[in-house]
Amino acid sequence: MRGAGCTINDLLDRNLDPHVARTKFRPIARRAIAPERAIVFAGAQLLTGLAVLLQFPTQCLYYGVPSLILVATYPLAKRVTHYPQVVLGLAFSWGAMMGFPALGIDLFSSGNTSALAAAGLLYTSNVAWTVLYDIIYAHMDIRDDLKVGIKSMVVAHEKHTKKILAGLAITQLALLSGAGIVAGCGPVFFVGSVGSAAVSLAWMIRRVKLDDVKDCWWWFRYGCWFTGGGIAAGLVGEYLARNFGLYEKDGVEAKRLASDPPGPAA
């Protein structure tokens, strides 16, 4: 689906990309591939994504199909708003919602308010994270974007980028912490996932040279692995701690169990 989004983006931007140094050699922009063939290719990618989606519970269809609207909307957003990064974040973060129905949890059924809150907090945390990284990415094209008339948060707020990045990082960490609290996570998650994310984001925001195209590209390409790797490691650690008895019954796990609805009467 990410590939399909890239194809749709390149197809809709085929008249803009030739005017941007970084994108002018993309296949559709340099006319190595005709738009008609690109449409066929995008269709094949979408069908492949559908084939994967059909392997999951049926309710995943109801959660997954609406994401196509966001995938198709992002390339158009940069023409009408200075905040296309937000639309991109909404599309890229959709997997945070999809994990729940994939496990058979209907977020919108009665009795699943905690799961819905956790999903919403995790999703919006990922949105903030995506916007943060794409702002760094957008700095590579700012001069050409200004000439062509492409809108972005960088074009609108170039002089305040680092402050915006810091604000987004704090927002991401707060929402991620909120998801952990609602889900009843313990110290392994908060130290491993939230703590490592805080360190990696602070390091990146401090070190990135926004006026250096190569430096922006390096941080965009590798920075997400530092933050994402730490979050993933913390989640794995939390899972292992729960399943191997690191948390006592009177601790975090007991709180989670106590919040579960009671089973049917004997």
From TrEMBL:
Pfam families for the chain: UbiA
Obligatory cofactor(s): Mg(2+)
Membrane topology of this protein: Multi-pass membrane protein
Keyword Transmembrane annotated: yes
Record-linked PROSITE patterns: UBIA
GO cellular-component term (any): mitochondrial inner membrane
Primary location group: membrane
PANTHER family listed in its UniProt record: 4-HYDROXYBENZOATE POLYPRENYLTRANSFERASE, MITOCHONDRIAL, PRENYLTRANSFERASES
Entry protein name: Uncharacterized protein
